[in-house]
Amino acid sequence: MAPPANGGGGEVQEQAAQPQQQQRGIGQMLTGVIRIAVFWYFASKFFSPKKPMSDPSVPNLQISNLFNKGEPLDMWFYLSEQQNFSDFGNEGALIWHETNIPYAVWGPESTRSLSLKYHLSEAVKNNGSLYAHVFFARSGYSPDPNDPEYQPLAAFGRTYSIVAYLPKSKADKKKSLLRNSEDSKEDVTIPEFPQAVQEAQDDLKEDGPPEWISYWKPNVTINLVDDFTRYTANAIPPIVAPYINIESTTGNYYPTVFFNEFWLLRDKLIAINDTVTEVPLHLEVSPISMTKWQLFLQMDQSFQVHRSYGSMLDGESDELKRVFLEGNPYLLGVTMIVSVMHSLFDFLAFKNDIQFWNKNKSMEGLSAKSVVVNFFCQFIVFLYLLDNDTSWMILASSGVGCCIEFWKIGKAMHIEIDRSGRIPMLRFRDRESYAGNKTKEYDDLAMKYLSYVLFFLAVCFAIYSLMYDRHKSWYSWILSSLTSCVYMFGFVMMCPQLFINYKLKSVAHLPWRQMTYKFLNTIIDDLFAFVIKMPMLHRLSVFRDDLIFLIYIYQRWVYPVDKKRVNEFGFAAEDVDQAASSSDTPALKEDEKKTN
């Protein structure tokens, strides 16, 4: 199917609550494509049906295409409300007729198109069906079985539903909380009984089974597959078998007719109702290669598998297709490579973060309060994703992140269970390596002033969101406000560590491997900021993490190496030197004395 000439569709509103998600949107989708390809490869290798053992007494019959390459074909395109079509003499049903289309020949003469306006009948407006019946025949022959010139081996066809039935999108439950409360104070009149009943029925409909409505497909692309493969009758590939049309007398197959709707996005469909009387219809017939055809089939099948497992929501496949439709191919290639690197650096940063906290023996020079705040930020994001309809894979990933952040609290502080009351409570106590030096004092001082700034920013944004944004409930407003603060002001949480480094004049205690991988990921996010269309303020906001990391690098350059300071694994350079000196043999020590 040829991609649409224009991008079309409504403009995607950029929400302030998710700037980080917008920056990584294309990278995550392209990474998903790679995962889908790998998944499909291994699934086809290990779970595809095995080829049956051939019986020596039964010959392996080879079937081939009944038509030759370049053979001229005539085409008839009918529209009918009946699924089985036989009214070939109805001129009103014949929408399009083409002659001398060369079969499986790549050239301008093999591609034909037609655009028209179609008037809907009353039956179609009331959730009726409409089918496209496409017939091909060798030039000079008729597709009508009642015609004297009809030859069964010279004509073939296929039926396609041009009306799709999809569940109606649920009404947006978001509302202006402040405006509704003001309206309830000003207007205390009770609605009339029929209006109240109607509102109650609407609420029941939203909670009940989905309502199905009919949609018009404005683009119908007919592809003749360039397939002249000689298949073994009992070993046709599973992905091709449903589309093979075998002739009963000879055992050979007709040319495959494929209605290509891979690039037909859902937002291009037109909802059919009583007010719609005329709809556009663009028709196109063209050849398609065997490789491209199988790629479309495999991609659609992979999308269906991911939707059934819950790893892909409805509409995400359309967003992925839109990236390939509207994106620059060279830019997409670079983005795909960079997204793979982003996933690799994410994995390495996660691995080194676990290693650091697992082997860390001292909290000297590290901000324990930042670890606690990071857990609460991760938990807020998890609740926000749970409140919004998010796929279970993203929820599971966020939930695992919450558990890891809580585990890091146990490494940074002592966690005790207080059973003195009726309800057991968790109590957190600072470690001796953290409270016994200046680290705790500097951490408390930095967090004190930063909490004032964060509290002021959070309250201002919450008031702005309450006045100008729409929310499902007060709970959703609180979650969205907190999540927005985490996304927009979360980088401020790295500032206490900068203050501690400044006061201690050392950075030897930091996990530099993990921070290096995170810094590389930040550079990749900067690249995505130029790839994705976004407002200038959002584009500038992605460089805030760069500023923090540059300050870290500056501190590493300014402050000299302190051998007394413990490193990321809880060891100091002097300890290593002492261990090395103690492991020397007595003979070496005597030699040293002699030389002295």
Automatic annotation (TrEMBL):
Keyword Transmembrane helix: yes
Chief localization: membrane
Record InterPro entries: CLPTM1 (IPR008429)
Family named by the database record: Belongs to the CLPTM1 family.
Composition-biased stretches (Low complexity): 12-23
UniProt-annotated stretches for the region Disordered: 1-23, 576-596
Listed Basic and acidic residues bias regions: 587-596
Protein keywords: Membrane, Transmembrane, Transmembrane helix
Organism lineage: Eukaryota, Viridiplantae, Streptophyta, Embryophyta, Tracheophyta
Subcellular location: Membrane
Membrane topology type: Multi-pass membrane protein
Gly residues composition-biased segments: 1-11
Name of the molecule in the record: Cleft lip and palate associated transmembrane protein
GO cellular component: membrane
Regions crossing the membrane: 330-350, 371-386, 449-468, 474-495
